[in-house]
Request: fold
Amino acid sequence: MKLVSLLSGGIDSPVASYVMAKQGAEIILLHMDNGCYADEKELDKAKLLASRLSEITGQEMPLYSFDHEVNQTIIHKNCENSYQCVFCKRTMQRVAKEFAIQHGCSGIVMGDSLGQVASQTLRNIRAEGYDLDFPIIRPFIGMDKLEIIEIAEEIGTYDLSIIPTSGCGIVPVKPITEASIEKIKAMQSKFDFDQMIKDCIASAKRIQ
Reply:
């Protein structure tokens, strides 16, 4: 089993990658680089986390970075502000799917935990994955944060994940929690979503 795993600098996604690797999956790590919307330390954290995951699992985990700054800007210009995070996740999933297909992977790993943040409500998860038609594995969907943190501490990723950064600079003040698929369709029709994904895939570079 070969999977792509979306790796942020947070607590959940590296632990999700670890759990699936322990289940026997071969993991390729994908980091969406927010560019001017993020702290430069986020990319450094992703590299440190990837190194730790390789060390703890004994598995080489290639780490690829994608230009997500352009995507975030396009979304910001064409979509309602409250939908920024939903479209961000939707874009990441689509990029991961296309990359997975190109590299012979059969699914996407994400660190989502139901209701933990605005983008992880059930309605938003449904809207983000609308028409994706590709497996997404969420090993923590029914777990709470403390359970995930406990695993992170055990495997040595927690201290790396909590290195202070400025966070995402384009997160809306009031993110939507009950996204509408009809509104997703309407907003997505305002720009060339497929071309945006192709351009993002073309920006991929292996950084570790």
